[in-house]
């Protein structure tokens, strides 16, 4: 789960943008694979806390080394805090999901996010949604149902957590539409890491004091601490790659590349856990990808028409 908030503009370079976006989508599932591995010994809440704490720490160290510590102050502190909280809750939901299901399956279900975002934008932002996009949404949701049915039977309601992740991330993207990002990449990542670590750290303390299983702090070993730090580093690097890609290439070109994440998740999941999606799951994945690509196409067409109308009125 990464966002495309861009900072300063740079010269367009479509091929380099494609390389950056593909690289990001190839490494993001590694973070999820590590989280799944760690969740066998550590609570998902603690793993998620580690992801945000080390992201915060990495940003702080970079700012100190570059003499930019004073520039970490956000122009939108409240908005950035809300962004961080939504990302933290989305990550917690997803990391809990991959504890019980394969990473590829969880990511595939999560990719109903473009459909969810379209629905929420219509309800909250009053954006117009045509009959063709409604049809695409229904196709994507059908794909999610195809994937979910056996998982609901096997592991119960926990299989719906990727759906919750999609909703939380869609609200995060809606916040970005309502309040365009005004800070640079390092400030954004620092803010997200700090707010996420504060929220999840407080939950971890409360869970430990209340002695709630799955919310209770477990002292990690040094190798586990190293893996938690690696999750934070991957999150930081992947977000940076996505932002750099969107600075150099158009959203219509880069958006379809997000589905490379399913391929890399399948590969790494098979290599590490011997997980491989079955036939019906691949059918559901195909429906979700087709739906997402069509929604992206319609969004591009809508923006082109809006720009053409603006030019005509000038």
Summary of the model, kept short:
Helices cover about 75% and strands about 0% of the residues. With about 325 residues, the chain is an all-alpha fold.
- What distance lies between the first and last C-alpha atoms, to the nearest angstrom? 39 Å
Which blocks of ≥5 consecutive residues have pLDDT under 50? none
Helix content: over 70%
Radius of gyration: 19 Å
**Tally the helices: what do you get?**
12
- Supply the helix-strand structural class: mainly alpha
Oligomeric state: single chain
From N to C, what is the helix and strand string?
HHHHHHHHHHHH
> What is the averaged pLDDT score?
87
Q: Tell me the number of strands.
A: 0
- Structurally, the number of domains stands at 1
Shape: globular
Strand content: under 5%
Major beta sheet summary: none
Question: What would you note in describing this structure?
Answer:
The chain has 314 residues and is an all-alpha fold. The chain has one domain (14-306). It contains 12 helices and no strands. The longest helix is centred in the last third of the chain and has 35 residues, at 279-313. The model has no long low-confidence stretch (mean pLDDT 87).
């Amino acid at each position: 789960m990464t966002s495309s908030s861009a900072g300063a503009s740079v010269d367009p370079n479509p091929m380099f943008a494609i390389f950056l976006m593909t690289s990001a989508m190839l490494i993001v599932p590694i973070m999820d694979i590590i989280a799944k591995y760690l969740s066998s010994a550590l609570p998902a809440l603690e793993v998620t806390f580690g992801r945000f704490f080390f992201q915060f720490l990495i940003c702080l160290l970079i700012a100190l080394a570059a003499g930019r510590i004073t520039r970490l102050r956000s122009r939108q502190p409240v908005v950035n805090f809300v962004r961080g909280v939504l990302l933290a809750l989305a990550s917690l939901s997803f990391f809990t999901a991959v504890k019980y299901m394969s990473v590829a399956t969880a990511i595939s279900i999560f990719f109903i996010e473009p459909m969810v975002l379209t629905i929420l934008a219509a309800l909250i932002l009053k954006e117009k949604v045509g009959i063709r996009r409604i049809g695409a949404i229904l196709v994507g949701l059908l794909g999610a149902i195809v994937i979910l049915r056996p998982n609901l039977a096997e592991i119960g309601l926990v299989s719906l957590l990727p759906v919750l992740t999609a909703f939380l991330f869609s609200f995060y993207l809606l916040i970005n539409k309502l309040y365009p990002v005004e800070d640079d990449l390092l400030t954004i990542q620092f803010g997200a890491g700090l707010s996420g670590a504060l929220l999840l750290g407080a939950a971890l303390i409360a869970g430990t004091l209340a002695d709630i299983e799955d919310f209770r702090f477990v002292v990690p070993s040094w190798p586990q601490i190293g893996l938690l730090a690696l999750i934070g580093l991957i999150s930081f690097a992947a977000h940076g790659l996505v932002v750099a890609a969107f600075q150099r290439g158009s959203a219509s070109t880069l958006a379809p590349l997000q589905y490379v994440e399913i391929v890399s998740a399948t590969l790494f999941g098979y290599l590490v856990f011997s997980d491989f999606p079955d036939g019906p799951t691949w059918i559901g994945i195909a429906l979700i990808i087709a739906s997402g690509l069509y929604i992206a196409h319609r969004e591009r067409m809508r923006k082109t028409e809006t720009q053409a109308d603006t030019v005509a009125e000038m």
